[in-house]
Batch of 4 targets.
Target 1
Amino acid sequence: MHQHYNLMLVVLSYVVSVLGSFTALQFALGIPRARTQTQRWLAVLAAGTAMGGGAIWAMHFIAMLACNLGVQVTYDVVLTGISAVLAVVACSIGLAMVSSGALRWPNLVFAGMLMGLGVAGMHYLGMAAMLTSAQVSYDGSRVALSVGIAIVASMAALWLAFNLRGKLQMLGSAVVMGVAVCGMHYTGMSAMQMSQGDLLPAGFAQGISGDHLGAVVFGVVVALLVLALGLSIVRQQRRAALTI
């Protein structure tokens, strides 16, 4: 069985990944500037949600919907929700670890490995949420490659989050991060091997599906990211005005 992709949704998945990465980098600026532990954890959670929920999970889900496997597919609501939470938690933990003190390479590598494994776990949990009659198996070497890409991309994201300040630098980094996140996803998708099955699994009818679901998810996530990004920029401008 062969995979075919809706090019429009593929493009939208990349766009949401870039926007999510840029928003996360913007929120990350507030982590070292936090004056209290509450402010710090709020900044970590905001950056982790933008990165894990926007740049990674939303990209993954839209790209999954872009893929036509030639069989009927719906998505388990619970597993899909857990995969989103896992992405946010993994990114938040990575950001918290790296921002806890001076940025040292051992700390960056360890945090990047944890975050990368969490992102890879999100990806394969999200793929496990597929409800279809087809029998699914995986190519082990490509799975390992996708996990490696996730770890390297996570290390890069964590380093960029605390080493960039200019808007153009952030935008360029977000573009690169979008490529890395999409590279991990489509490598993981290429590891999936499907063969024809006969029976639809239990819960198929209750799963998530819809011809325009990918575009709807894109629109909702982008609206939330733009709103969050706007509020972050306004807050930073007010802080800057108070220090003048």
Note: The first strand starts at residue 4 and ends at 5.
Target 2
Amino acid sequence: MNSRTSKAIGAAVGVAAIALSVPLAVNAYAEPSTPVAEIPDPQGPDCGAFKDALPNWKGLANLPVGTALASIPSVSTFNAAISGQLNPAVNVVPVFDNGPYVIFAPTNEAFAALPPEQLEVLRTDPAALTQLVYYHAFLGLLGPDDVKGQRPTQEGTEVEVTGSGGDIKVNETTKVVCGGITAQNARIYIVDSVLNPADAPAPITPTSTTETSTETTTTETTADTTATEAPAEAPSAAEAPATEATLTPAAEAPIG
């Protein structure tokens, strides 16, 4: 009797356990999975060296751009320039972290190639340094195939990007050595020279053909009217003195 009761109790416990486990299994299976966005490979001739120096480069996608730039060894001088290390009065990292931005980060070799006197100005003149670093950023989140074009920088003057993929230039002469590096709120392009606002391309300003034509027509009409009226007045002014000069000597000539 006891054996039969024990078996009945055991069966009931087993059924209860199964009943309890089924909803849990269903819930676990029904829970949606969050897709993980793939981090695009950066492009450029020196991207191999970039990846070797920073094997966990994909992790930069989870970092604000200021932290991402501080993690890239080859642009440590640029990071110092934007973060108050080169000049304590200039720290634009909070601005860049509030992107989205495309940021051109010159290599350490690019800064080393600057004349010593220019580096000294950047260390001692906050306005000059701010102007320089702001010229290296414009609003947007653009990869290597979409970054081309001419756009106003954070400094105010414009920058021109040509090419695509692994062959990109900035302002015609500066080369992107590794571009499209993904940060949380920016795309980083490592460049081989320091960009100079003095070399900025002429701004693109739309012009109105209708207005230009109207102004040209008005100018031409005014010029024609002036040219027509001027000769009409000139002879009248010139004839009076000529008449007086002719008559006066004749009146005073002696008789006889």
Note: The two ends are 183 Å apart (CA to CA).
Target 3
Amino acid sequence: MDNAILTVNAGSSSIKFALFAAEAGLRRLAVGEMENIGAAPHLKIRAGGEIVLERRWPQDQALNHEALFAVILEWVEAHLGEARLIAAGHRIVHGGAVFTAPTRLDADVLARLAKLNMLAPLHEPHNLAAIQAVRALRPDLPQIGCFDTAFHHTMPEIATRFALPRSFHEAGVRRYGFHGISYEYIAGRLRDLAPRLAAGRVIAAHLGNGASLCAMAGGKSVESTMGFTALDGLVMGTRCGSIDGGVLLYLLQARGLTADAVSDLLYKQSGLLGVSGISADMRALLASPEPAAAQAVELFAYSAARHAGALAAALGGVEGLVFTAGIGEHAPEIRAAICARLGWLGAKLSPEANAANAPVISAEDSRIEIRVIPTDEEAMIARHCLTFCGPTGQGRNTPHPVV
């Protein structure tokens, strides 16, 4: 068996991972997920379409990331046999203004990343906990960090600014953009599938529980709906998206909410869940007969279309629209609702192609090309690892952008 690369996406209650053969084609060998961390952990690993390992732990068993990764790594190494794991690649939500490319993770880098925890409190600490766990268990295994913010460092300087005193910008209070690993993958796939479109002006819509839009010109980010944090922009599963700062002052001053309570409200109680009062899951809302569910769905589509209009202005026109991620790839109703509001841009769907989740869903007389492209953040992370630890990158220890 070939040597392999492990990719890791660690969250607060789950760890998603994949194992790839360390070869040019990056063949996927296995995928897995550890769910219900902190409650009753449940591990499931699939290889060749079959469940090859499933394990459950008792309710409330105290298992930290290191204990959980010990189980994962033991299975990986047993599965590889005589082959070896040559790298672990991690999705890291925030790279700040410094980490603008995939980076070899060492003690110094981890210390610098820990200072960014406050910028992504729901994600960054868990990303780093996974890295520390692997570091403790396999100290000699190279680990590579891939940052959701890195793709957006091509945004023009003016697009990164808030209209705050300059000292805040210099201290890092600026717009960063997120979902960059996904957008980087989409930009690459678009170059393969439609080179002329990839060279033009495209809005990519990463629509899932977390949702954002990215304006790309020639395959590079020039604007994003997410800003200083992953709270900004579109309505999301449990996040409210863009909100008047005066609302936050009102919650703090007039309603007496603490900063922690406001954080919980914005991150966990708002968005589709807050508006519907039913669910954060788009599938449940589409199936619900409740008026509040329909309103939440309409607000999601309205928010996406409104922000797409702003991104069209930033681009100076649009030739293409790409839908990706869970909702973007699998919810024809949402794509139709968004595109119906973008008719003024020339967007026109083929109802048949849209219903079939076809790769190209625009009508023949649509002025912009509309596509559905499945994203693959795991493959993007593995590709970056290969540049560090493959035949031409063994031992690389500096940030290295992959073109």
Note: The domain at 4-147+378-389 is CATH 3.30.420.40 (Nucleotidyltransferase; domain 5).
Target 4
Amino acid sequence: MKSAPLRRSLSLVALAAAAILAGCESGPSAAELEAQRLAAEAAARRPPPIALNDGVAQAAAIYVAYLREVSAIPPGGFDSAEAVQAAIRKGASYDPAQLSRGLIAYGAVLALQSPEFVAGVRQYAVDPVQRQQIVAQIVADPAYAATFPGADAAAGLISEAIGKDALQVRVIGEAIEQDAYTIQERADPRRRWAVAHIQNREERLEGAKTLSAAPMLPSAEESARLLTAATSGTGLGVTASRKSPPYTPPVTRSLAIAALAALGAGGDEARVNTEALTVETSNEFCLSMSKLMLYQCLAASRPSYEDMFCLGRHVVRDIASCATTAVLAPVITVGDPEETATRTSVAVTPVQTPAPTSQPN
């Protein structure tokens, strides 16, 4: 038979257990429920993270890498005919469609460097219904992205960075063209090989066409760098600038891709949308015409100094002209849109006869 103290101890344990069970059955306290409610509301007010798929970063990497290659072509002072041919091979190795898409993709990464634009877009990403409506509107009409607060700041970054790079490349192209004249002077020690006719002219032309047809492959390191810059909003060292509308179609499409990313709608699930937005026909046409003019120039040239002219005019300078037109010169359509767009968007210089020949002694 249990003693009285033992029975009292067991009773106290039972009461304590009952109290614990009662507390569990009653659920969270009012304070805990309020904290949970506030946390849920805060989460609902938080927009999704910035999202951009690596396809955009890879396209941008292709453009950046090609511009870097062209910028490394010596602006003058070629020391051999082979050095000229090597520069032509380097300059001709681009696909117009890929390069055009890369410019627009790079513009999107630049736009995401604008905190003002990103914040202006993300304020509309809090409400899931409104966010989906805006995403659909951008996909249907890319120009809608230019109406967001801060669009002028983002467009300024695009125009400033791409325009500055284009200007640097143009300077190189003009210097190469000038050197095509300088190298013909009798006092220039390079004149001997510069005026000699190029061997295997047909093979060199076909080689340029083959290089043009080969797909451009992105650098994994460059792609990763640009993707990080896009999602973090930093890392490219851009100079702040503003540009008011109207915007060119490539700039508009860059803004649209950046807006989708800021809304959290530019990730892998949106690759179809972002790839479609990088396609812009007038910019592709400009680059395609430049490539055609290069082929015609190479077909007509014979000595190395004429190939230097082709390189300077229809590779380096034309690339700069197309890039400048893409971000700085709005296309104004009057009459038939397709015909006018074709007329007004091509900034390349028509085929001209290569630099005049100096008769050798």
Note: The radius of gyration is 31 Å.
